[in-house]
Amino acid sequence: MSDEASAGESQYTDTSDAAMQAAGILSRVAGEGGILGQIAAGDWDERLTPDDAAALARRLWAMSETVRLTRAAGWAGDQGDEYPRWPELGKMLPLNRKERFWTGTVLPAIITTPYFVNLDIFLKLCGLPDVHIDADTGPMQLFTEYNLTESIFTTDDRTRLPAAPQGGDTPDLVICGDGWLLAVEAKMFHTPSIAALAAQLDRQRLVLRYLQSTLDIPIERTHHVLLVPGALPTGALTPVVTWEQVLARYDGIAPAYWVNALREALHRYKELRTAKTTPNGQGWLSGAEIIEQHATGAPFYGYIGRIGDHRRIHRAEPQRHRGLAVRCELPGRSTAV
Prior knowledge:
By secondary structure, the chain is of the alpha+beta class. 42% of the residues lie in helices and 13% in strands.
């Protein structure tokens, strides 16, 4: 790690420095003559419209709750006072097994809350150790389920991004910053084969290389990462980040609600993952999941299989709740998928 990156890391991990920074800001905000005292005394009433006042009230409630929880958790990392609480196992609704919930909702909620200040933890896991989110960060974009073909829509888009790869694939998370780019393909309960994972990453890599070249991003600052449970075989695929690593890094930092959701998912992984597929299969989906993927216009899998028969996926064909072996392309010979 460079000296600059090490300095940035220490800025966020040195407890004494962090406490001094927080004390200074709290003193200016809540100390004698501070802004909070002025607002509480009504000095700002004439400056604020009703909408501004309502928005400020919500931000102040959020700030007070953050301070309260930091005080409660700061001594031993105990987040027990946070609310709402994730329910006990077996209570309320069954756990959501949709991949998009974990990759498009839970992951961003963990790595971006609050105000993106802890995003650098995830970026470091993904090979970008010197990116920190502060006033000097510059502009940044974060997209889930990002399909470049669908996103190039306006005349300006087509002018800026000519001859973009068509189709391609949809990474679960894309983060683009000032001079850096990260794409993440994530799996939770879906259990594709190593070959299927490699094929999907290859399709995404075409798009990533195009963006790196067109946007003039240094190749060493362009990263493509596979995020999976530690129990999912990935063979020689690299780089790989595990959900367990995310949990370990963000436990006690990210909101306890989302951390505990991830904790339950990993605890129940063997129980909730999709069934093992057959020898020629590259995945195992229900008919409903196949139809949902087909509706995106760029399905990951193109074929379902039966004994001695391979059939091209059609949106109306599979039974919705039956488990079916699937793969991206036809196997070399006609056998059971």
